[in-house]
Specification:
Layout: H1 6-14, H2 21-31, H3 37-44, H4 48-65, H5 77-96, E1 100-101, H6 107-123, H7 128-141, H8 167-182, H9 188-201, H10 210-223, H11 227-241, H12 243-256, H13 263-275, H14 279-292, E2 294-295, H15 296-316
Parallel strand pairs: 1-2
Helix pairs in contact: 2-4, 2-5, 3-4, 5-6, 5-7, 6-7, 7-8, 7-9, 8-9, 9-10, 10-11, 11-12, 12-13, 13-14, 14-15
């Protein structure tokens, strides 16, 4: 079966196996994914200058090695699949939680990533990670309308009106998770999709199966270790075992330094400090998160949190 879609054909062409994975993904995102160099750098958790150098080196290797830009035949698609899926995953992520600008969501990016993921699944129906990625996108996108309030403000998962979630997308996503798992070749996208399905199955926040989510994050960390997965695990542990336990894990990540410029680490610590009543420390962590956040809706949310913890701290000060 040939690739009928022009953009997807070009993405498979750019994800050449002769390039290192990070290089092929970054180059494809910059060339075809609609992301800017700063946005890609944030996705890779590297300085913008470092990402720019990677792009230059990748282009030089293509030129010097004479790597041909040819659409691969169908039998060679699987060797390029990991890069293509990573491209679509990062395009969706930037659309779902925009790293800059005024709007929280860039719907044109999420819609395009889902559209292309559907085509990949139709081309390679027996590739469980492709199916898992599509499921992951649908399960998150099902909550899209509920994530944004009337004035464009960020609404956290436990505060969302779950009646506004897209039930059709949830049902389709859950069915795809089951289909992918039945192929008995587990992978990171399938595990993330299973986590998203557990969130979407909960009719109210208190019904969320946090112990199972912790187990899935632990499995994901073994399969695809990264500081961001560790951060998500810490957040889940905080919900399952209490904020003090989760905070200790996040403090360890902060000390390690790899997520020092990652705003969600500081925002996560701030939330746990807030839940523990450590208002002054929470305010400091929220300020650090604001310093690193380029999205206006996220900044406004963090500023509201600072106001809340500052007010609480003021009430506790002796007269």
């Amino acid at each position: 079966m040939a690739i009928a879609d022009d953009r997807l054909r070009l993405i498979f062409t750019c994800c050449h196996p002769a390039l290192a994975m990070d290089a092929r993904v970054a180059l494809t995102l910059r060339t075809l994914g609609g992301l800017t160099t700063p946005e890609i750098a944030r996705a890779f958790l590297v300085p913008e200058a470092t990402l720019a150098q990677r792009l230059v080196r990748a282009k030089r290797k293509i030129r010097d090695a004479g790597i041909p830009y040819r659409v691969p035949p169908v039998e060679l698609l699987p060797e390029r699949l990991a890069g293509v899926l990573r491209v679509l995953y990062l395009v969706f992520n930037e659309g779902y939680a925009a790293s800059s600008g005024d709007a929280l969501v860039r719907r044109e990016l999420t819609a395009e990533a889902i559209r292309l993921a559907r085509i990949v699944v139709s081309l390679l129906p027996d590739e469980p990670e492709a199916t898992g990625l599509l499921a992951l996108m649908l399960l998150h996108d099902a909550r899209r309308d509920a994530r944004v309030g009337p004035a464009g403000e960020l609404v956290l998962l436990d505060e969302q009106d779950r009646d506004r979630w897209d039930a059709g997308r949830v049902e389709e996503g859950r069915a795809l998770v089951e289909r992918a798992i039945a192929l008995a070749r587990p992978g990171p996208y399938q595990l993330q999709a299973a986590i998203a399905a557990l969130h979407d199955e909960a009719t109210e926040p208190s019904a969320t199966d946090w112990p199972q989510i912790v187990s899935l994050y632990q499995a994901l960390l073994r399969l695809d270790p990264s500081p961001v997965v560790e951060l998500n695990l810490a957040a889940a542990v905080a919900m399952a075992d209490g904020p003090a336990t989760g905070l200790a894990m996040m403090d360890g990540l902060l000390s390690a330094g790899s997520l020092e410029t990652y705003p969600y680490l500081h925002a996560g610590r701030a939330d746990l400090l807030r839940r523990l009543g450590r208002w002054t420390e929470a305010a400091s962590a929220y300020r650090r998160a604001i310093d690193l956040t380029g999205n206006a809706a996220e900044r406004a949310f963090l500023e509201r949190r600072i106001a809340e913890v500052s007010t609480a701290a003021g009430r506790e000060r002796p007269n």
